[in-house]
Amino acid sequence: MLITECGKQLSGELSGTLITPPEGTPLSELAAVIWGMAKAYADDGRVFFQNGDTVNALASFYYGFAWLHFGRSYGLLSSSTENSPACPFTGANEKLPASLSAKLSEKSHRYHRLLDTACESVVPAPEPETSGGMFARRVILIAISYAGGGEGSLSRGEDEEALARFSYGHGWLDAGVRSGLLIPSRNREIFTI
Fold it and tell me: CB within 8 A of 99, min separation 6: which ones?
């Protein structure tokens, strides 16, 4: 997907997103935090893009999508339309100019290491057989799946796709930690808490 289209899609989805839990409850406060983080990443991505930093724009938009999709999957957020959430991974990723290849490669490889470390650093907080415990394990599996997909993209020289997958996977873990579903057993500094 074109980076500009990705940013527009994320902003459009955010504008059509509702907070599901009743106002004034702890879950509505958490939903507002999750929505706010998705919005912050969308805004950061737009600023990066306007300043010509398409590498960081790409990472920010996919982080934002992860927070939004986490919130919807956890039941904190819903869409005001009947449309299902859009997938930012549809179509081929935009190839960035060769002048950005060194920055893209460095960031993709760094995010690969970061996501691998993050996946190994979290444990579910709720009891295993509770719905919270099952969802926490699902969040970890999603992150592991995107880490594996990103690794495959790196091996094919598709650094844009790899960075998108690593950013998206890490966003799910960050949202899981921020929501209290996951506990960082180590490397706490790599999570948005």
Answer: none
